[in-house]
Amino acid sequence: MGIEKKLQDLKDQINRIVPRGITVSEVEFEGPELVIYTDDPKRFADQADLIKVLARDLRKRIVVRPNVLEDPERAADEIRSVVPANAGITDLFFDPETGEVLIEAKKPGMVIGKNGTTLREITKQIGWTPKVARTPPIESSTVKQIRQFIRSVKDERKAFLRTIGRRIHRELTSKDQWLRVTMLGCCREVGRAAFLISTPESRVLVDCGDKPGSVANGTPYLYIPEIYPLTGLDAVVLTHAHLDHCALVPLLFKYGYEGPVYATPPTRDLSAMLQLDYIDVMRKESDRIPYTSNEVKSYIKHSITLNYGSVTDIAPDIKLTFHNAGHILGSAIAHFHIGEGLYNIAFTGDFNFQKTRLFSPAASNFPRLEALFMESTYGGANDIQPARREAEERLYETVNATVKRGGKVIIPAFAVGRSQEVMLALEEGIRRQRIPSVKIYLDGMIREATAIHTTYPEYLNADLRNQIFREGLNPFLAECFSQVDSAELREQVIGGDPCVIITTSGMLNGGPVMEYLKALGQDERNSLVFVGYQAEGTLGRRIQKGWREIPLGWRETIVINLEIITIDGFSGHSDRRQLMNYISHLQPRPEKIFTIHGDENKTIDLASSIYKRFHIETHSPMNLETYRMI
After folding, report:
1. Tell me, what DSSP letter sits at residue 230?
2. Is the Cβ–Cβ distance between 415 and 508 less than 8 Å?
3. 265 upstream amide cis, omega within 30 of 0
4. With the C-alpha atoms ordered 467, 470, 473, 479, is the resulting torsion angle positive or negative?
5. DSSP letters along 551-587, please?
């Protein structure tokens, strides 16, 4: 059956389901969604459960869109006339691509109304589909720019989504049934995550990152026959926004990829922010950059965002569902359903199976699961992390000791994840008088990353979400935090009173931390505190190992006299105990487990231990190997 015949059949089915008097003028696949165009959006809005019924019966993601969208300026006036003034509307974002209007308000409940009555009234008045979000306490320039850019390329986006929609819903051509996974990076090493899922019909790439600290082999194997040419890929799926998983996604567009990239909304925004910073840092360090901001724009233009739990067709024989990974904002375990119940496979990305100040534990329940690819960063037998409370106590002791001797505490941290965890711990330490009331300076992209956290509160755990939106209690807005946004202010911090400096990059491979290390490294009153993983080959790992003279370029050397402290327990990764605990909690238990994203001895040790305890077939794969699942 061709696409046109399939669409006509779907239209006939829809007409049989919708009440008499509602006209369906057109149905079209746009990306993973089936879009129903109608002259009667207001009558659709009157039927509260109609879209749910259509989605259930057709087994498709349904969007209803009016044939003619009302002018946004006029629609904005009508929204403000329907919604009570004390709801505090702060922003309206009209997305012509989806026919949705995002209403940001200080009191979103008043925009929704009792049992959704106000929302339905808005739809009746303007035709646009209203979505409601609470006004973020900290405005994100990244989110604003991405929304504006997507609006500016709406016609290109629509054409792209229609092309992709038809590709996703094309007819199956092969009678064979098999599934293979090819390792393009991240096996028996940390970094350059990239895995290729292949079936007779489809090819999907999971992640595409760089390898921190590596010059010779920092890129996944993107040139081998299994993945080349890139135009043959059906989709790219991004688990989260750390650079060892997302840095080289724009490179795919440079070399011919024109398909979709699936990610959660926070992952899309955070990864674009980090990619732009990545090429900026590389430009300062050398003349060669892997791609330009144009390729980052291509990535955003081709992105399709999915929330946790949303089952989505991404190829004729593959469905994708994201589940919470508990690692950083928007991080996801990517679960793939292959064929009509043929096989189920999941990639954890990086994950954390414990509740933290920011997130709930990683999901461990799936409808079905035959194979699992799981990270092993702390998979070694001795990789036992202290409890988070112990780590925070040690941080307080370090701050107290350093400040007492007149020094400054430098904390290199990833802009996304570790920074916010440490910020929350320090804010509570000051509030409860566990540490002195010193200034905590944020340098690099930490403030902007924090703003994105407050833009997507639904991805944070309930405790923090409630705290953020209670008047005067938002820990991210505490008076102790100050943003460093100029070289002059950085100089003042360096020459000023004892303080805490949280700065990027987390592994000391570039970024503002190098300025602080150059200026403060020789003074033994100061402290350098590692709170995150330091990969082999990075400057952070070398200092951890005891290097006390760090060459910079040909002539410059940094002398390290300050105190070096590693505080385990803040990591966003599960330690050895939690990794094993995760397997015991998995429902259902998989038939095969592949240990990836860890040093060689750790992935092998973890695979061996899982096999011995759980009697599950395990593998510690090597790069360039291909495994047939069925």
Report:
1. G
2. no
3. no
4. positive
5. EETTTEEEE--SEEEE-TT--SS--HHHHHHHHHH-B
HSE (CB half, 13 Å, CA atoms) of 506? Answer: 24
pLDDT at position 472: 63
Q: Who's near 515: CB < 8 A, 6+ residues apart?
A: 490, 494
Distance of alpha carbon 460 from alpha carbon 77, whole angstroms: 33
Token code pair at residue 420: 């916010």
In a 10 Å sphere around its CB, with 0-12 CB exposed, 13-18 middle and 19+ buried, how is residue 350 labelled?
A: buried
Distance CA 499, CA 214 (A): 33
Q: Which amino acid is at 170?
A: R
Domain ranges of the chain: 72-135, 171-381+573-628, 388-566
Residue 615, C-beta contacts closer than 8 angstroms, at least 6 positions apart: none
Q: In the structure encoding, which two tokens stand for residue 206, read together?
A: 């999971």
- Parallel/antiparallel/unpaired status of strands 235-237 and 203-206: parallel
pTM: 0.92
The tokens describing 397, both together, are 């002791």
Q: Which CATH architecture has domain 388-566?
A: 3-Layer(aba) Sandwich (3.40)
- Quickly name the fold that domain 171-381+573-628 has: Metallo-beta-lactamase; Chain A (3.60.15)
Mapping DSSP to helix (H, G, I), strand (E, B) and coil, where does residue 262 land? Answer: strand
CA 79 to chain centre: 32
Q: How far apart are CA 161 and CA 35, in angstroms?
A: 11
SS3 label, residue 103: strand
CA atoms within 13 A on the CB side of 131: 10
Say which CATH architecture domain 72-135 belongs to: 2-Layer Sandwich (3.30)
pLDDT in tens, 63-120: 888 887 888 899 999 999 999 999 999 999 888 777 889 999 988 889 998 888 888 8
Answer whether 171-381+573-628 and 388-566 agree in fold: no
Distance (Å, rounded) from C-alpha 372 to C-alpha 197? 13
> Which tokens sit at 14?
């829809």
Q: What is the pLDDT of residues 29-69, one digit of tens each?
A: 999 999 998 887 777 767 768 888 888 898 888 888 888 78
Name residues whose C-beta falls within 8 Å of residue 504's C-beta, 6 or more positions apart in sequence.
412, 413, 414, 415, 419, 443, 444, 445, 446, 511, 512, 513
The token pair that represents 323 in the structure block:
């589940």
Please identify which residue in the block is written with the tokens 């051509």: 173
Burial of 335 from C-beta contacts in 10 A (0-12 / 13-18 / 19+) = buried
The pLDDT assigned to 40 comes to 77
Arithmetic mean of pLDDT, 421-438: 95
d(CA 507, CA 509): 6
Q: Hey, what are 117's tokens?
A: 């009555």
For the stretch 516-547, pLDDT in tens is: 999 999 999 999 999 988 877 888 888 988 88
CA distance 23 to 40: 7
Contact predicate 171/4, CB 8 Å: no
**Res 285 pLDDT > 80:** no
Gyration radius of the chain over CA positions: 25
Q: Which of 606, 615, 505 is nearest to 188 (CA)?
A: 606
